[in-house]
Design brief:
- α6 runs antiparallel to α12 and α12 packs antiparallel against α13.
- The protein is flat, with a radius of gyration of 29 Å.
- 48% of the residues lie in helices and 16% in strands.
- The protein binds guanosine-5'-triphosphate and magnesium ion (MG).
Length: 436
């Protein structure tokens, strides 16, 4: 169809003469009229993105030309692609698996170097290879067990139980590692959540504004100014952080403020990094008790805590003394303490460095799970494998154990799309934009 519209070197192209993957320069003619000077590339199956015969036309940037071209093509029997249709076709034609197709969507929406790196790794198939490896190990185990089942009358044990257990443990810990990487993977994709918490009027909203370089949150000297949480992402040296300003913590009977404070606690639990704001103008006992209150809400095994002594401009040259005393009183190596003035924007570099050092990139080269669908499948696979492990320990009949093994295989296979339904595919690809 496209060949019939293109005049190359003064002649219409014949379909049979077309050389694939070559760029043709020519005139796009519609009913005798020249529409535009264009570049056209023809792709022959399977050497195209979708794996099918296809053509790409590059026109000049005019919206009119683009609309007109679409109209001409539709008149000739084409239709507009659905959202994600190109990628879906490529998946169906086995150009890549489902996890890789989803990585394309992630790549398109990546907002930081780290998110881009994770998407590229998934696109290259690192994650898929790991899953395939695990699946083939489990398939081997299932085969062994089912063989045993076939001969169950004769009371033979083919599968070496200790070998099975070792194989299982290896796979289970691999699945669990991938599952646990989701917290970090998700943080990289959507921004590492950093909750800014502390008593009212300590300067949390001022800090958010200083970090963003704009007046995003309302600042005032009235305690309890911020009622709801405010979230904004910011790219700091290639890492995406999601800063969350929260309602100040204090005792209150006011209903709305109470709800806000509940939310603050929730944000602390969900955060990867917690910035605890303290006010330098408070006395050191009150600062220590605020610090301890925040510390009691943070799980230092999973989260990092940076305590910021704010408003040090009100006590010039006292910063080092204040932070030294607090570090000594807290006596906790895992907590970082820095001094700053959010209002006058000094000490922010120390905060950036603390954030950089607190980001939990403990295994940057290993596969990170970033997709909630994959995470769910891994959680289920892990549950099924734990049941298998239990079954082997307690000598549950082989047929029941192998059923759980099949479940685990099913969940792992659903990630790469080896096992999938039209409904699942529909949901995944509808998230793509048109033309991808
Ligand atoms: N001197 C000085 N004042 C500051 C500093 N940071 C914040 N303030 C002032 O402290 C007051 C409270 O600031 P906010 O940013 O609204 O404090 P908050 O912690 O968000 O307060 P709530 O939302 O009520 O919990 C405002 O008057 C700010 O101007 C600072 O570094 N130095
Ligand atoms: Mg505030």
């Amino acid at each position: 169809m496209v060949a019939g519209l293109l005049q190359h070197k003064g002649k219409y192209l014949e379909t049979n003469d077309i050389i694939p993957s070559k760029v043709y320069h020519g005139h796009l003619i519609n009913k005798g009229d020249l529409l535009d000077d264009v570049l056209v590339t023809f792709f022959r199956a399977p050497h195209s993105f979708t794996g099918e015969d296809s053509a790409e036309i590059s026109v000049h940037g005019s919206l009119f030309v683009q609309q007109k071209l679409l109209q001409i093509l539709i008149e000739q029997g084409s239709r507009m692609a659905e959202a994600g249709e190109f990628t879906r076709r490529a998946f169906v034609n086995r150009k890549f698996d489902l996890a890789q197709a989803e990585a394309i969507a992630d790549l398109i929406s990546s907002e930081s170097e780290a998110a881009h790196r994770v998407a590229i790794n998934q696109l290259k198939g690192g994650f898929s290879k790991e899953l395939q490896m695990m699946r083939s190990k489990l398939l081997e185990m299932t085969a062994l067990m089912e063989l045993e089942l076939d001969f169950s009358e004769e009371d033979v044990e083919f599968a070496d139980r200790s070998q099975l257990k070792a194989l299982l443990q290896e796979t289970l810990s691999h699945v669990n590692r991938l599952k646990d990487s989701f917290r970090l993977g998700n943080a990289i994709k959507n921004g590492i959540p950093v909750a800014i918490v502390g008593k009212t009027n300590t300067g949390k909203s001022t800090l958010l504004n200083a970090l963003l370089g704009e007046d995003r949150a309302i600042v005032s000297d009235i305690a309890g100014t911020t009622r709801d949480t405010i979230e904004e992402t910011l790219n700091v040296n290639g890492m995406l952080f999601r800063f969350i300003d929260t309602a100040g913590l204090r005792q209150t009977d006011e209903t709305i403020e109470k709800i806000g404070i509940e939310r603050s606690y929730k944000k602390i639990r969900e955060a990867t990094i917690v910035i605890g704001m303290l006010d330098a103008s408070n006395n050191s006992e009150s600062m220590l008790s605020s610090a301890n209150e925040i510390l009691s809400k943070v799980d230092l095994e999973q989260q990092r805590l940076i305590l910021c002594i704010n408003k040090v401009d009100t006590l010039p040259d006292q910063g080092d003394v204040l932070s030294g005393r607090l570090i000594q009183d807290l006596d906790n190596d895992a907590v970082l303490v820095i001094c700053l003035s959010a209002k006058h924007k000094f000490g922010l570099n120390d905060l950036y460095n603390a954030l950089k050092n607190s980001q939990p990139l403990s295994y940057p080269d290993a596969t990170l799970v970033t997709n909630v669908r994959h995470y769910e499948a891994l959680v289920h696979a892990s549950e099924s494998l734990s049941k298998v492990e239990e079954g082997l320990e307690t000598n549950i009949p082989t047929d029941l154990v192998s059923q759980d093994l099949r479940q685990a295989l099913y969940y792992l296979g659903s990630i790469t799309g080896e096992i999938t339904t039209d409904e699942v595919l529909g949901t995944i690809f509808s998230r793509f934009c048109i033309g991808k």
